[in-house]
Each structure stands twice: as C-alpha cells, then as structure tokens.
Amino acid sequence: MKSKQALKDIIKNKKPKTKTNASQFFLFNLMSKLANVIEEDIHSNFVALLKAHRFLGRILNGKLGEFYKDRNKLYFRTFFLDAKLYKLVKADLEYLYPQYKDVKMTITKRGVIIYDNYRKNVFNVLLLTIHSGTWVPMEVEKKLNISEEERFKEEDVDTNKLYCNLVLEKNGIWIDNKQSRFVVDFNRDLSNAIYSEKSEDWLNIVWKESLTKKEKDGIHRSYREFYFTLAKLLDSYKFNIIFDGHSMRDEQGRPNISFGTKYIPNFYMPIVKSMQRKMASLDYAPVALDNPYQGGNILSWLSIKFPNLFIIAMEINKKIYMNKDRIKSVKYKTKKISKDLTEIFNIEIEEN
Prior knowledge:
Blueprint (H helix, E strand, L loop, with lengths): L1 H10 L7 H35 L5 E5 H6 L4 H4 L5 H14 L7 E5 L3 E6 L7 E5 L8 H4 L6 H7 L4 H5 L1 H6 L1 E6 L35 H24 L4 E8 L8 E4 L8 H16 L2 E3 L7 H9 L5 E7 L13 H11 L11
Parallel strand pairs: 4-5, 4-6, 6-9, 7-8
Antiparallel strand pairs: 1-2, 2-3, 3-5, 7-9
C-alpha cells in the first residue's frame, strides 16, 4: 500500500511519505538527468579534445542562433583571417537561420565549420562538403594565375546548400569548408594538396608567382588541421554513413548525378542501388555509378582506417542547379535538389 501511495504522490508532484521511497525517487531522477547530460556532452567532449591538443589554435563553439545574433559583433568579425572569409561565414548563418538555430557549431579561423545535429541511437550521417569554399587569402590570390570566374567554374559553388539537409533535416555531423580548393585541396594527398601546373587535366598555368615557404607551410598546416579534426570526430561519434558531396562540370557524356563507390564494402552495394533508383525516380536520370569519379583521397583515407564503414561520394552536374554561365547557383533549383536528396535515405534494398 505504501508503494502505491508513493507512486500517486509522485504523479501529483508530491513528496513521497516514506524515507526509502523518497531516496529511490531522488536516485531515479538523478540517473535520468545524468543520462541526458552524458548524451548532450558528446559535443562538449569533442570540443574539449580539440582544445586540449591546441592544434587548431582558437576556435569558436556555440549554437547557430547565438552566432547569428553575434554576426556583426567585433569579436566575430575579427576572429577570421580576413574580411572576405568573415562575409562568407556570415552569409551562411543568415541562410540557415532561424530554421536551424539550435544546431551546434564549431568554427575555425580558416573557415572549416562543423555543424552538429547528432542524435544518439538513431541514423547519423557524417557529411563533408570540402570543395564548396571559394575563399582565397589575399596574399595567395595575388599570385594565382586563375581569375575568380574561372575558379568558380571548377569549385563546387553552393554545394553546401545542396547537401546540408542530409544532416540538418535528418541527424548527424556536417563539415563544411570555406577555403578554395585552389588554395588547398583536402581531397588529395598532402604532397599534391597545393595545385601545380598540369596537376589536373583542366589546369594549365596555376601560379604567376611562386608561393613562399611560409605560405606553403601555412597551407599544409591547414590540411593537417582538417584531417586532425576529422580523426577526432570519428573518435567521438558513431556514424551509419559517411557522405562526401561534390559537383562536377557538365562535360559531354556526363550524367546528371553519379555516386562514387570505389571505397564501399560490397555488402553495402544494394543500398547504393536503392539510392540510385530513388534519385532516378525523382527525375534526375541519368544517375550513374563511378562516372566520372569514384571517390577521392578522403574516402581512401577513411577506408584504410575504417574498412567496414559505409563511405560514399556523390557528384551533382552543375547544369542542373547553376545558371547558364555556371558562375552562380539558381535558388529554386538548389532548394529543390536539397529537399529531394533527403529522400534517398528512405532506403529500400533492391533484390538482384
């Protein structure tokens, strides 16, 4: 009878009448709170790991809504290496607010941004948009032999907007990069991360003036910082899929969409085929596999460290979301593709 009365008191938010039941109720509440704190603290533990190693230097950590409100404050404007980079990050905050104001963010001085919408014990994606950046530091830009317009034709302009819903509308972590691939390409090995003449089929003369040793060292440091951060993410979180999102030039014979499957263990291929079928059904055909790219250095690196992970790349043809000159994205097309991409995770496995 006493236990029944205690339960009634708890339901009515009254204090239980017995000392034993009061202790049990207190312990139950404490354990529940501790479980919630542990779940919430995955992000805090990750940030603590980054700060403890002091490898990244100063970082900013908070919620998207907080940074949006502070976007014009002096501390935020002067945190980044220059005003151009600050404006790119500010524009992203204004694009994503207020719909995702509660998403956690970690920001580095060089514009690598981690959006944390991770939920424990559900399907979580690790999304990378490492070629979406267009920022070139002023001292480097002076030495480039390639105009901004020419760069934009090869950079994955606004792919951050194409792919972000995979994490922000679902669950997981998204790593975005504001730095141009013409400064450092995270999807190549370190020795080739800085482009040189003829290092790619589409490159001719890259530099009109050589970079100094100090400038090269700074760029290589940025590369190491990125892979350090990626490693710490994988130490801290568990992901069901790692998704590397890109765009591609609309050269003759290329599909509208292609999945890069080189580094996927074979037992995941039925899921890939389901994704391919889903995108085709949403009017994106032709949807190909490994045409023209199979996956870059990041997926190769991940496949060696984590051979059983589901890691996949995706290429979206620029013609289906950019203007005629392939310099700017078209807003309504970008939004539609972003919405449709979330559908590919309503997975149905095809039978052979």
